[in-house]
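Quick one, probably user error.
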């Protein structure tokens, strides 16, 4: 299973390093960061949706989405593994994502009721995907 985080904007080095650390730790899944450039005449939402591959499960991250636990995320991952599906997580920029992205998504999830900077979401999501994989592997990381 391939997990792709689709987002916009250049991040400081510590963000990229944090994401890379958790991507490296994942063994069964491949975690990839795709930074989509925004061009004139296209919204962030249009560019992100344009980067989604045809058969990918689309997961939109939005603080107004459904709040789930790490165990819930692990259960979703287990289902995607069983179905042999790849997943695209959409992280909007400072303006977030609109209704088109939410309609295209199979899941609209919230990492927290708190509002995080969209750049920081990359690291938080990567850690949670790693944590979910550890839960599925009965690893003691998740305590």
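Nope, works fine. Designed sequence:
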């Amino acid at each position: 299973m391939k997990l792709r985080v689709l987002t916009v904007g250049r991040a400081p080095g510590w963000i990229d390093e944090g994401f890379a650390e958790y991507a490296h730790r994942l063994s069964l899944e491949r975690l990839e960061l795709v930074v989509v450039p925004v061009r004139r005449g296209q919204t962030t939402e249009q560019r992100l949706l344009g980067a989604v591959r045809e058969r990918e499960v689309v997961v939109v991250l939005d603080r107004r989405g459904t709040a789930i636990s790490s165990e819930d995320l692990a259960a979703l991952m287990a289902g995607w593994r069983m179905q042999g599906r790849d997943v695209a997580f959409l992280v909007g920029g400072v303006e977030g994502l609109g209704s088109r992205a939410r309609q295209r998504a199979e899941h609209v999830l919230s990492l927290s009721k708190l509002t995080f900077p969209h750049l920081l979401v990359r690291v938080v999501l990567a850690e949670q995907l790693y944590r979910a994989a550890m839960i599925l592997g009965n690893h003691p990381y998740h305590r």
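The beta strands are 2-7, 30-35, 57-67, 87-90, 107-110.
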